[in-house]
Amino acid sequence: MAHLEGLTIRRYRALADVTLGMTFEHQDADPLARIIAVIGPNGAGKSTLLDALGFLGDCMRGGVDEACDAAHRGGFERLRTKGERGPIEFELYYRETEDSRPISYSLAIDLDRKGRPFVAKERLRQRRKGLKRGMPFSFLELKRGRGLAWAGDATSEEEAADKLSVNLPDHQRLGIVTLGNLAEHPRIVAFREFLEGWYLSYFVPQSARLLPMSGAQKHLDRAGQNLANYVQHLERAHPDRFAKVLARIAKRIPGVRTIKTAKSDDGRLLIQFNDRGFEDPFYAQDVSDGSLKLFAYLLLLEDPEPAPLIGIEEPENGLHHQLLPTLADEMRKAAESPRGPQIFVTTHSPYFVDALSAEQVWIVNKDERGHSRFERAADQPTVKDLVAEGMPLSSLWSAGDFKHANP
Ligand SMILES: Nc1ncnc2c1ncn2[C@@H]1O[C@H](COP(=O)(O)OP(=O)(O)O)[C@@H](O)[C@H]1O
Ligand SMILES: [Mg+2]
Question: Is 271 found in the same domain as 182?
């Protein structure tokens, strides 16, 4: 399964210079876990980390100026870390499968003389075949759209007879999207799909109560507005599997006996929750926010073709704390399953955090300059010792060992 093992971000809002996990420059660090939870005070940079991943997907899809100008980003000048002059930079360390050689992709975005964002630098590197260590080989290296690309599977200069000189006409678009051979190369296609598929979930129970006209939709959207349409897709495409999924989910939601679907007279799809103690079912309009939310998250994790990389913002909002260990556990299982998504969660919930290991929890705080600092819980010396003694992670949190990272 595709895996982002590490990344560096520079000058993206409060992320002035952060590295998480393993990169070519940080080979001694552990790769990012399949699921990570990011905790820290308000304004520390949790959502910004998720948005940075969404930004990369947007750069691939629509070009860098469009990505900067997205309504919630407000342009390059607002994105670049205040007080900094250099380009916004990314380095992603990615593996297509557990045993493929890692790819490292770097991107620098700057402003041109007309004040328009453009791709200042782009580089793709991969370790040479058969080598576990040593410097990687660049098979794309561009500055201001000019440079060299190596087609085919060459991973050394000797092999690379098919070296191409490149001069890109459009400096807003990425070379890995527009350069013919390279853009079609399976390893690049897989890498792009990984980022373009980025999916952010910020589930709002109220939206899921809408009763859209029937019509199957393959994926649940960000706020859960198309919950009924997504249910219809699952039911139609995989009826046997879906019945099992509903039975499994019903067991996880307190008080719920069974979940079924029915059609209304005008053809809309209704989700029926059969509660213990009541003969008649409840519909999505009447079940509690918490039940609906848990239902939506659990169903999101059952997507038969999940996005390879997903972000989930503060899943605890509106959920009873006793449900959070279940939810964290289900997310972890999904992330670790063979075709499951890699998951980044932001949370303020100690209950959620307790269901994870110290390798899966990252703490973010701002330094005196207002820059975000990320540290893995497992790398804080006191945390390591105390967890080894069997202390839950949240007890360290309240004891103040997660410096300033209070919920
Ligand atoms: N261009 C910028 N340079 C530096 N800091 C920024 C920039 N844009 C936003 N910020 C800061 O980033 C923080 C927002 O972080 P956010 O990721 O929303 O926090 P949270 O951890 O609560 O999700 C705010 O404190 C804001 O001041
Ligand atoms: Mg936030």
Answer: no
